Hints:
Layout: H1 2-16, H2 20-27, H3 32-40, H4 43-51, H5 57-83
Helix pairs in contact: 4-5
Amino acid sequence: MVAFILSVVVCLLLLLAGFPMALDVVRGWAPLPLVDAVAGLSFLTHFQAITRGVLDLRDVVFFLLCIGAWLLATVLVIDLKKAD
């Protein structure tokens, strides 16, 4: 149950990071490079081009790296559980 709730929260944060309202909140206290980094982490900004039918290599690489990072994190957690 805890893993599900944490997963939903992380996915929601990664989705909301691309909305203009969320970026306006970050712009209020963060420098522009950090705002760009937050916008770059958003699934929304990478998925908008795909919904228009444009398959950009940067977007594909972003999603493949996300999949790989979460798979690596899963393997590490499973290995830690096995070690106990």
